[in-house]
Specification:
By secondary structure, the chain is an alpha+beta fold. It folds into two domains: 275 residues, no CATH class; 130 residues, Conserved hypothetical protein from pyrococcus furiosus pfu- 392566-001, domain 2 (2-Layer Sandwich), CATH 3.30.1760. 31% of the residues lie in helices and 22% in strands. Strands 1, 4, 5, 6, 8, 9, 10, 11 and 12 form a nine-stranded mixed β-sheet that branches. Helix 4 packs across helix 7.
């Protein structure tokens, strides 16, 4: 069962609350170099903990958190609770308002793939990125930003308590995405217990933060090896800070992530289209801005943006039998499996095992950026994809397999800086632990 628990968050002190929007930052895996450079100018911005400068990063992060605690830049809440976090947003081309409702708590960080693990991932991780996170976690014993997990409750039994909590917000800001973020807290132990009880028996799908969660898992393994399997289960290293939202909600949005291809030697567009014609139906599109509507709802359909041309390709139904990767049928029939096999491996010649680290493939959520990159000649072409459904994510997680890399972009991203979660034992344990 999913074991969640309230905690006493570390937050910026009361004198800094009015400038909280200047202290938040994007997550480490989406922040741009330009954003980093700007945010580093503020000595108290959360970027100094989430993405410390590369030279001596773990030691630097340890020094920073020690100084912030000593100087009172951040202070630990005296009363434990569950932190309610709402994100108000809209999507391009639509005036419909969305509110993603969720809460931040600690959750037991059990190893992937173990029978007792209740957190299921849908993406693989890159080892060196995990190690970077482990090094910083070991040095700071602090969860700087929550990962994002999904539980499923069709009755929406927790939303009424969260709505009530949001009437008295701690913070309310607009972030770098144009999203309004609102944080509040539930201290009432009886209500907190309802959250704990509701999550019991639930499987959690990890929506975002695979590297950060795996770093917690790796760190937990280190500590258990040091202290032994029989160590106190309430040691802080057993837990990880997570933002939990209801996967049954329509306000959970998954946006497509497109592919940009650049730097291929001897690239020949005509030859590429000839290769693709073996497996795809090819159609020229007059207006590149129409490609989303043209692709919408069509299986195995993609848009190709070139400098002066837009093309729709759709896999011939019989071609799916020619997909040679050793996957179950569920995985073979995913749009992105088709893309990475037939377009990137078969037509471009970049083998599946090399695609994760290929310098020729980058990932971009913004369609306008894809179009700009190709029209300016900065990219050889871009591949426009459809969004993936929540039902597909659930089915893949249940199968025990993972999606192709960068299959999902859960929007909006959470922000860093509202609160931090300590796993140091003297800051983690609660006076009423025996009752949870």
């Amino acid at each position: 069962m999913a074991k969640i628990r309230p905690f006493c968050a570390w937050r910026y002190n009361e004198t800094m609350v009015n400038s909280i929007s200047d202290l938040t930052s994007p997550l480490f895996d989406v922040i741009t170099q330009e954003q980093r450079s700007a945010l580093y100018q503020n000595p108290y911005n959360s970027i100094h903990l989430s993405v410390p400068p590369q030279t001596g990063a773990p030691d630097k992060a340890h020094e920073t958190i020690t100084n912030w605690k000593k100087k009172g830049i951040i202070a630990q809440d005296a009363i434990p609770g569950i932190y309610v976090y709402y994100q108000h947003f809209s999507l391009p081309g639509s005036s419909k308002p969305y509110v993603r409702k969720g809460f931040i708590s600690f959750i037991e960080a059990l190893d992937w793939g173990k029978p007792e693990s209740v957190i299921k991932r849908h993406e693989n991780t890159i080892p060196h990125s995990v190690q970077d996170r482990v090094d910083v976690l070991r040095a700071t014993e602090l969860n700087v930003s929550p990962t994002h997990g999904l539980y499923f409750d069709n009755d929406f039994t927790l939303e009424a308590y969260m709505d009530e909590s949001q009437k008295a917000p701690i913070y309310e800001t607009e972030d770098y995405q144009g999203v309004k973020d609102v944080l509040s807290v539930i201290h009432d132990l009886d209500v907190v217990q309802k959250f704990i009880d509701r999550l019991k028996g639930e499987f959690i799908i990890l929506a975002d933060g695979h590297h950060r969660l795996e770093s917690s898992i790796q760190y937990r393994k280190e500590k258990i090896a040091e202290l032994g399997e029989d160590s106190d289960p309430l040691h802080g290293f057993n837990y990880h800070m997570m933002y939990l939202t209801n996967g049954a909600s329509d306000d959970l949005r998954i946006l497509p992530t497109h592919r940009i291809v650049k730097g291929l030697e001897n690239f020949d567009r005509k030859r590429l289209l000839e290769k693709l014609s073996e497996d795809f139906i090819i159609k020229h599109i007059d207006n590149p801005y129409d490609i989303h509507e043209i692709l919408l709802g069509k299986q195995w359909a993609f848009g190709l943006l070139f400098e002066d041309e837009t093309i729709k390709i759709r896999l011939k139904p019989e071609a799916i039998e020619r997909l040679k990767w050793n996957f179950p049928q569920l995985i073979k029939e995913l749009d992105l499996t088709v893309l990475h096999y037939f377009v990137i491996e078969k037509a471009l010649g970049i083998r599946g095992e090399d695609q994760r680290s290929s310098p020729h493939i980058s990932f971009e959520r913004n369609f306008a950026t894809c179009l700009s990159q190709t029209m300016k000649g900065h990219a050889q072409f871009a591949i426009i994809t459809n969004e993936i459904s929540m039902e597909t994510v659930k089915n893949v997680c249940s199968s025990g397999y993972t999606l192709p890399q960068k299959s999902t972009y859960f929007y909006p991203k959470v922000i860093c800086g509202y609160l931090f979660g300590s796993i140091k034992d003297d800051e983690f344990k609660l006076p009423f632990d025996s009752g949870l």
